[in-house]
Amino acid sequence: MTQMKTNSVDAVRDVPIISSAMPGDYIELLKPRVMSLVVFTALIGLLMAPGSINPVVGAIAILCIAIGAGASGALNMWYDADIDAVMARTSRRPIPDGRIEPEQALAFGLVLSSFAVMTMGVMVNWLSASILAFTIFFYAVVYTMWLKRSTPQNIVIGGAAGAFPPVIGWAAVTGTISVESLVLFAIIFIWTPPHFWALALYKSADYEKANIPMMPNVQGEASTRMQIFAYSVLLVVISVLPTAMGFASLGYCLFAAVLGLVFLYLAWKVWQDRSVDTGHRNEKRLFGYSIFYLFAIFSALGVDAIVMRLGL
Q: For the domain 23-177, what is the CATH superfamily, name and number?
């Protein structure tokens, strides 16, 4: 792998700003698809936490988490504008496409970050605000500015940023970090590598062009496929821990096991795939299913928590 290039906003291709940014451009900076997953898992953490929270305070907590996630996305796009410009799947983002100036994106992200953290601290509690602040810092600085361009373990370590939302939701209710909330963290943390590496396998040329040391580009496809399967095995085990630890029902355990076995089968197909003529069909299937899987697992946890609270 060639030495990673130094990030510079000046490296963005010279596209003139031909018009004022539209509201939709700023919404795109927030990475709304990623935000939806963050908000959803945070909501499940909030619902599963013992005790109760005023509905208005709970809504403020979720709103702050959403704004914080969006701020992280804006800061990520500001710093990554140079590599976004050369990757096919990101070249139409607002900054490389010339719709928003880098300085606008930076200011937008910083203002939203400050607003989200301060509002969370004042209106909810300072522990949840502190975790939110750390999450934004971890994603924008530790992952985006350091890990992403320096190590093939970028997704493994950086995945922690996406795993914190249910912990924040839990802390918003209880004011604490518990073992249970860390299990929710672990599910997302272990899910992240097979999810992103499946994408990286069929987008490796894009990452190579941008000099991003993704696992397939550095350690090869065979090693990446094996690691996807290994992480998938671990994911299936961790997904049933809520039942083993007594904060989810047997019904959830059975549902999670079925979902996990499908995940494992798809990961095994990726591991065994040695053909160059499949068009990365197995990788695309695993990537698509992994998104469904995480939503399904956390949906089941949320439904289970509601049912247990109601004593049904």
A: UbiA prenyltransferase (1.10.357.140)
